[in-house]
Amino acid sequence: MMYAVKEYLQKGVVESEPIKINNKKFVTDTSKSFVEWATSFDLTINTKLAKKTLFNDYESYCEDTPDCDIRLFGSWLKVYAGYNNLIPVEAHSGSVRYIEFRPK
Q1: In a domain, 37, yes or no
Q2: Which of 37, 56, 61, 79 is packed most tightly, with the most Cβ within 10 A?
Q3: Global pTM exceeds 0.85
């Protein structure tokens, strides 16, 4: 008991990272299948990724019955960036839309 008091007096209140809370919020803001896909898929940092290619991969992951359209999927990619401390940078070349994840 005295050890705990000593630690408190030396370090104050130690906060732990709310891992499960962030994960629950991530699922709430997107969908369970998107979270599973995003954690299993390699979303490379500092590389331009075509949104349509990512969406097609997500579509095949969901067995061709995704729970969103490509526009909603794009906003979920931004949510993914926010929860992983990344900055989403969007660009386009003609009709191809890209997203790039950069570290903050």
Answers
A1: yes
A2: 37
A3: no
Q: At what angle are helices 70-83 and 32-40 packed, to 10 degrees?
A: 60
Question: Is 30 within a domain?
Answer: yes
Total number of domains in the chain: 1
Dump pLDDT digits (tens) for 24-68.
Answer: 888 899 999 999 999 888 888 999 999 999 999 998 888 866 788
102, 46 Cβ separation under 8 angstroms? yes
Where b means 16+ CB within 10 Å and e means fewer, 22-48 reads eeeebeeebbebbbebbeeeebeeeee
Burial (0-12, 13-18, 19+ Cβ within 10 Å), 69 = exposed
**Selection from 53, 54, 50 nearest residue 40 by Cα:** 54
